[in-house]
Design brief:
By secondary structure, the chain is of the alpha+beta class. Helices cover 54% and strands 15% of the residues. A two-stranded parallel ribbon has the order 1-2. This is Methyltransferase type 11 domain-containing protein.
Length: 68
């Protein structure tokens, strides 16, 4: 998960700054959820609760449910 944090956190921080520090109130739709790492980071590190993920591959959805 360290790699994912290094990849996603700078982008999330920029979005948080753009939103005036209110990212915890954001609603996020992740299309192409994969393993669910992005949503997991948003929930665990940034306190975002309104999250939804979609993926056309049932196996990805199954894996993401285990990771989030």
């Amino acid at each position: 998960m360290r790699f994912q944090r290094e990849k996603f956190c700078p982008r999330i921080e920029r979005a948080n700054k753009f939103l005036g520090g209110s990212i915890a109130e954001a609603r996020v739709l992740d299309i192409g959820i994969g393993y669910g790492s992005f949503l997991n980071i948003l929930e665990q590190d940034y306190g975002i609760q309104n999250l939804c993920g979609m993926d056309p591959f049932p196996k990805s959805l199954e894996m993401s449910k285990k990771n989030t």
